[in-house]
């Protein structure tokens, strides 16, 4: 039996019109899953549907703000009616605000926490009853290097992603008895629109990250396809509360010695 086969499974990937969520959805579709995704605007959702179709994937897209609990609950009910019970959830939607802590407003801090931490709680809570009734489920939270490390200007984001690591572990404990595996993926620095400002030609951060990464390159969304498929498949049925870091070695590395 192919443990990585997702045939017959319905997967919801949040914020997956492009970027990391899109690549993860591709991996699941290639393994046989039915793909459902949401994004903030109809323009983004339609763009995503067209991109998936161009890749041969018949994805269903819905407009939904993951921070809106009522909208999320309505979305999950609609998916259940139109597609079926959600077997796999990837809490991928996220934002970042790069502002020095002393300059960051509480409103900005709260918005990042709302999207990156509270929303994964909201969406997980919405899909869990269906998974419990079905007797199985997979939830994958997209964490970060900032689940483990800090850096200047990302206090809200690091607080959210650190909290998301612990939310992952806590929900894993609460729902393991229902055969629901809750795990996380911690990407390193990945080339997507979210990091585009850091990859501007001549931006010092680009050389910095290459030096901090033993693999000596930025990651790509495709680097996350296999790890996500592992955590979405029966190959990980005894993996609970684990954060799988896909970072080219960043977290293992003290840093290059001065030449
Ligand atoms: P991205 O390019 O910024 O895409 C994030 C997606 O989430 C966008 O489609 C965005 O829509 C959507 N989104 C934002 N707020 C939302 C909301 N309230 N409701 C629904 N959708 C919402 O990000 P990415 O680089 O692909 O990252 C995806 C995830 O991986 C994020 O959680 C990020 O924190 C995490 N991550 C990224 C990296 C990296 O290096 N790129 C590394 C580690 C972890 P809009 O286009 O409207 O904003
Ligand atoms: C930043 C980057 C990182 C990446 C990612 C690293 O400003 O430091 O945006 O936070 O997005 O989270 O894992």
What this model shows, in words?
The chain has 259 residues and is α/β, with parallel strands linked by helices. The chain has a single domain, classed as NAD(P)-binding Rossmann-like Domain (Rossmann fold, 3-Layer(aba) Sandwich), CATH 3.40.50. 41% of the residues lie in helices and 14% in strands. The chain is built from seven helices and seven strands, in the order βαβαβαβαβαβααβ. The protein has helices at 19-30, 42-54, 69-82, 106-134, 155-175, 204-212, 225-232; strands at residues 10-14, 34-39, 60-63, 88-91, 137-142, 180-187, 243-246. Strands 3-2-1-4-5-6-7 form a seven-stranded parallel β-sheet, sandwiched between helices. β1 (10-14), α1 (19-30) and β2 form a beta-alpha-beta unit. The N and C termini lie far apart (51 Å). The structure holds NADP nicotinamide-adenine-dinucleotide phosphate and D-gluconic acid.
In angstroms, what is the radius of gyration? Answer: 18 Å
Instruction: Report the span from N to C terminus.
Output: 51 Å
The beta-strand count equals 7
- What is the CATH class name? Alpha Beta
Number of helices: 7
Distinct ligand kinds: NADP nicotinamide-adenine-dinucleotide phosphate, D-gluconic acid
How do the helices and strands follow one another from N- to C-terminus? EHEHEHEHEHEHHE
Largest sheet: 7 strands, parallel
Structural class: alpha/beta
Low-confidence stretches: none
Q: Work out the count of structural domains.
A: 1
Query: Kindly state the mean pLDDT as a whole number?
Result: 97
């Amino acid at each position: 039996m192919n443990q990585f086969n997702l045939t017959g499974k319905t997967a919801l990937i949040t914020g997956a019109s492009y970027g990391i969520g899109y690549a993860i959805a591709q991996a699941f579709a290639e393994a046989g899953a039915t793909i459902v995704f949401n994004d903030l605007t109809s323009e983004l959702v339609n763009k995503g549907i067209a991109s998936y179709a161009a890749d041969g994937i018949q994805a269903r897209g819905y407009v939904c703000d993951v921070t809106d609990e009522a909208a999320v609950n309505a979305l999950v009910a609609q998916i259940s009616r139109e597609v079926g019970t959600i077997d796999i959830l990837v809490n991928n939607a996220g934002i970042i605000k790069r502002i020095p802590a002393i300059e960051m407003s509480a409103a900005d801090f709260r918005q990042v926490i709302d999207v990156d931490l509270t929303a994964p709680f909201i969406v997980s809570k919405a899909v869990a009853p269906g998974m419990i009734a079905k007797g199985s489920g997979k939830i994958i939270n997209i964490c970060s290097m900032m689940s483990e490390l800090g850096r200047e200007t990302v206090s809200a984001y690091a607080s959210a992603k650190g909290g998301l690591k612990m939310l992952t572990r806590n929900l894993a404990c609460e729902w393991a008895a229902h055969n629901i595996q809750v795990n996380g993926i911690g990407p390193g620095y990945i080339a997507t629109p979210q990091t585009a400002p850091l990859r501007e030609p001549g931006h010092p951060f680009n050389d910095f990250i290459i030096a901090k990464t033993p693999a000596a390159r930025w990651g790509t969304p495709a680097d996350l396809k296999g790890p996500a498929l592992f955590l979405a498949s029966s190959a990980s049925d005894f993996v609970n509360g684990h954060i799988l870091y896909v970072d080219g070695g960043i977290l293992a590395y003290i840093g290059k010695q001065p030449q």
